[in-house]
Design a protein that fits this description.
Length: 53
């Protein structure tokens, strides 16, 4: 798909307010976004002490 944008260079590089866009359409983001996606086992520490005489 090719075509031209109906924007000037200044409008294009000025950016947009994504926060207001997300507030207008709250279902745009998946609720699982930035949530952990894998199980991570708890960390373990093992110590070995040996006394030899």
């Amino acid at each position: 798909m090719t075509g031209s944008l109906p924007l000037t260079s200044q409008q294009f590089f000025a950016g947009f307010d994504y926060e207001s866009m997300l507030q207008a359409r709250p279902n745009l983001l998946d609720p699982k976004y930035l949530q952990p996606n894998q199980f991570q086992a708890p960390r373990e520490v093992r110590l070995l002490v040996r006394w030899e005489f």
